[in-house]
Design a protein that fits this description.
Layout lengths: L6 E10 L2 H7 L1 H21 L3 E6 L2 E6 L2 H17 L10 E13 L2 E3 L1 H11 L6 E4 H7 L8 E8 L8 E7 L31 H13 L2 E5 L6 H12 L7 E5 L8 H9 L10 H9 L4 E6 L5 H14 L3 E7 L9 E4 L12 H6 L1 H13 L10 H10 L4 H8 L7 H16 L8 H14 L3 H9 L7 E2 H8 L9 H10 L4 E3 L6 E3 L2 H13 L3 H22 L5 H10 L1 H13 L3 H10 L16 H4 L10 H14 L3 H18 L6 H16 L3 H17 L3 H18 L2 H18 L2 H15 L4 H18 L4 H13 L3 H17 L6 H12 L4 H16 L2 H4 L17 H20 L1 H12 L3 H19 L1
Parallel strand pairs: 4-6, 9-12, 9-13, 10-11, 11-12
Antiparallel strand pairs: 1-3, 1-4, 2-3, 4-5, 6-8, 7-8, 14-16, 15-16
Helix pairs in contact: 1-2, 2-3, 3-5, 6-7, 8-9, 9-10, 12-14, 13-15, 14-16, 15-16, 17-19, 17-20, 18-21, 21-22, 21-23, 21-24, 23-24, 26-27, 26-28, 27-28, 28-29, 29-30, 30-31, 30-32, 31-32, 32-33, 32-34, 34-35, 35-36, 35-41, 36-37, 36-39, 37-39, 37-40, 37-41, 39-40
Amino acid sequence: MTALPSGTVTFLFTDLEGSTRLWEDHPEAMKGALARHDELIRDAIEGHGGYVVKTKGDGFHAAFATAHDAVSAAVEAQRALGAEPWEATGPLRVRMGVHCGPAEERDGDYFGAALNRAARLMGVAHGGQIVVSHAAADVARDALPNDIDLTDLGEHRLRDLSRAERVFQVTTPGLQHEFASLTSLDAFPGNLPLQVSSFIGRERELARVVEALDDARVVTLTGVGGVGKTRLALQVAADASPRFREGTWLCELAAVRDPDGVVDAFATVFSVTTRAGQTRDEAVVEFLCTKQLLLVVDNCEHLLEAVADVVEVVERSCPGVTILATSREGLALEGERVVPVPSLPGPPNDATLEDVARADAVQLFIERARGVDPDFALGPQNAAAVAQVCRRLDGVPLAIELAAARVTAMNPAELVRGLDRRFETLAGGRRRAVQRHQTLRAAIDWSYELLTEPERRLLARLAVFAGGCTRPAAEAVCVGEPIEPARVFDLLAGLVARSLVVAERDHPETRYRLLETIREYAEERLAEHGETDVLRNRHAEHYVGLGGILSEEMSGPRQIDAGRRLAAEHENLIAARNFAIDTGNVDVALRLIRNIPVATLQVGYVLTFSVDPILELRGVSDHPLYPFALAVDAVQAAAHGDRVAAEEFCSQALDAVDRFGPDPEQIVAQVVSNARANLAFSRGALQDAATYMERSVEIGRSCGRPASVVMSLGSAATFYVMAGNSPAAVPLAREGLALARQLGMPTAVALCLTALAGALADADPEQARALLRESLQLEASLDYETWSEITQAALISARLEEWDQALDLASRAIRHLHWGGERPLLGAMSNIVARVLAPVTAEAAAVIQGAAYVLATQSPTAAAPVPAGQPRAAGGPRTGTASFVTDLRRETTGLLRDRLGEQRLRELRAQGGLMNTDEAVAYVLDAVADYQRAAD
């Protein structure tokens, strides 16, 4: 028998794609096929010196001494599987993942984080694909045969939620090279944060929560602070992402202090704003009512009644939304499933070394200890003490992590003695009286008392941050006796080393974050020092200033980096806004609204603050920024299609400017012009929308704001293209593109490239193709797309008859448009899908055409004619969005009538016409997925 490799081991995981369906369709044939599958893979593994650790279902788990042997075995297995006839079942498509790392081997099995990562890596691949981690690729590359290459697929977030992984695909002659995007977390919408530590144990709890989510739409995880409720909830959400069309989302309530802020927190997660006469609750429900998503609501215990009220409304009104809450007690809602989260199991008193090593609590201690001391190892000399530490800490994960962080200064036996003193003091000498919450408090107290006074004060002051902070933020907010600015970094490093602060290095700047239980403890200490109000005010002022800095940076070549920094600070900006509203600080609230970058300049997950609560503050109408706030409210109302409210806010804003006196920068006038452009767009008056945007261009020029000029030029050109007035669009798009390149603003370059491609699509198709290709490549390199630009790119691709590209873009646009509610052009995108599918899957295309008609009637811009009296560009009927979509629909109808006949076409269209928006979107996206799978 092959000796098991030890130390750093390379693992190969395999899994048969679609096995459930294969067993249902070919139950008898699959018996022989699976046996042959097992034989081929086993031969490949053992032929390259590998060891089959175990098989599970239709997958293999194998270990190798070297990474190149694992990759070579995977290649041989895929080649053998591809060469097999598989006559009855059709080809068996197996996905494979390779990763290497340190692992513990006992009794023919392995333990350690490397196994989990290899399994997660395999899970993001497709059938026939071999993916390799960065670690395995580094050591395998030089030893691989010349015909095996490793193609970089970029960084991806795996579902263990720890660090992002750079993934490589194995390519070699004889194997498939082209696959769909990896099914990592990046492939699904959501805002789940990366975690800096691996997920250990909890298999039973994971299964219980998943079972509860199958049975109930509100599930609450309960347990003592520090027991790992949040980490478990995030892991469940990551695993569940593929089940939810709109993904998995996190609403963090730790920074919310006022019950009225709960619904605001829900709304802020999804950038939901209200329209006139609408409450915040109604806006949230309106947005979520057609969504299929999982929302993790974290840290509910201090706002139980308010959280229960909001969750109950969502549960009743939004059938596709599932809530996974974490709290120290349940929400007491009808139909709620409460799942207690226990501590991690530790080893019994008489455990052997092997039993100690297998205990989840001990595995957590070992991994966290190795984080500060890579040479730490469990052995006969320290196993009993480690086991005792884990037992004395009642298996509470946070307490174990705090103790493990001390192994650089104390051995496990000394840790036991240190804990003894703390627990005896707390429990009056009776160990059994120590409850889990007392245990955790004792562990934190013990760690706190070992700190220097500056470290203690810094820990307390860090409690004012929500979602962590950067080093400059800590230096700006937390300095003051006894903390000197020059010492902040050293103090932070000390707190990180003691596991009291978490360092997250996957952001543009390292972020320092307190776990919620530690933050609560630190908040108490801050209050003891009487510094809470001072620090919260200092925190708010810092983020008002940071918003202005990031706005400036988003107007130039640092736009993408600034956008990522803004995204990282969302929770702090929300906390600053909440502080201003809670304390009635009109000045801070309005300056924050003024400084937050406008949505058109933000990249990725857009942060939008509703202005309504600020406009209700006492004295707001006397502040010089009051007109600006009214103008922003007009933009938000226009975005929601509330034309009456938007126009009213526009008028009020301009009246307020007159009341306060001249506005030399004309900021309010420009924002009002943008709002009126959006209003015109929403009613299909595209020529008017373009005119308003040209007015915005003039204002920006006169006041020296080139960033606003370039975005307005791109938008004006786009509106002219949609209206069919390409002659007016071309010079604007060219000017905008030149200015965007001069400023170095990548998103503005992409916007103007797309606008110019649309303007030239009929007159110069080849140049239009080149421009659109450059725009799409730029956006892909930036990992950036917006609903407006991707929708335009889909329409332009269809005009250029680039059908595969049009289909991909249209399906992506549909997701964006549906996510945002009743957006224009949803019906147009569905008509593009119907046209592409018509020659291949005519019946599905006919159903989509029927659904598209209904969608178009709910999307005024897509169906609206070009306003009377407006000029049309040369090029016949294919000018303007509405005319082009009409022509496209007629072309599709002709194709379908030839294939299906008039009667069948009518029947299928009627079927699609009965669908509501949600059903129609789901049908269209499923049809696209089926088409693309068949094409692969």
